[in-house]
Amino acid sequence: MTDYSLVCSQLSSLLEGSRRPLSAMANCAALLWQSLEDLNWAGFYLLSGDTLCLGPFQGKPACTEIRVGRGVCGTCVRTGEIQVVPDVHQFPGHIACDSASRSEIVLPLRAGDRLVGVMDIDSPSLNRFSEADRLGLEELCAILMTEADWDRGLI
Ligand code: SME
């Protein structure tokens, strides 16, 4: 079980040092990687026009561009809703960047009412992401989006 209150406070502390969104996402990906068990990928895609572009992450190299509406990430942007996918093989249009992935969670990142990208986390286990993970990650994204300075651009 992940101690999300600890992870959230760690991200908050890191954001006291720098509020640059790129640095914050890089450290957030590292925090996810060291704090959550049973992952094979954790990171960010950032929205440019109608394309999600690969951002900071941990794990194997991944696809660099995903169109809005495509895959789990693009569906998250199209719907604006968190996507919890217990079995990626059952998700129509799932994009397999790493064939080891079996389940996935994707959360929208909003700076005010502007959707700037998604947090994407993959696991090699089926049904890895619980309601507790969903709530904890929602809180982590809220910290990233309110405590980093998104008005300045990425750096
Ligand atoms: N599986 C994602 C693609 C990104 S990778 O998991 C890193 C999707 O279907 O959108």
Largest sheet: 6 strands, antiparallel
Number of helical segments with 4 or more residues? 4
Write down the Rg.
14 Å
Q: Give the SSE order as H and E letters.
A: HHEEEHEEEH
How many domains, as an integer? 1
Write a concise synopsis of the structure shown.
This protein is an alpha+beta fold and 155 residues long. Helices cover 35% and strands 27% of the residues. It has a six-stranded antiparallel beta sheet, with helices on both faces.
Q: What does it look like?
A:
The chain is of the alpha+beta class and 155 residues long. The chain has a single domain, classed as GAF domain (Beta-Lactamase), CATH 3.30.450. It has helices at 4-17, 21-35, 71-79, 131-147; strands spanning 41-48, 51-59, 65-67, 83-85, 103-111, 114-123. It has a six-stranded antiparallel beta sheet, with helices on both faces. Strand 1 and strand 2 (51-59) form a beta hairpin. Helix 1 packs antiparallel against helix 2 (21-35) and helix 1 (4-17) runs parallel beside helix 4. The chain is globular, with a radius of gyration of 14 Å. The mean pLDDT is 97. It binds methionine sulfoxide. Methionine sulfoxide is lined by residues 41, 62-63, 66, 71-74, 94-95, 97, 101, 104, 120, 122.
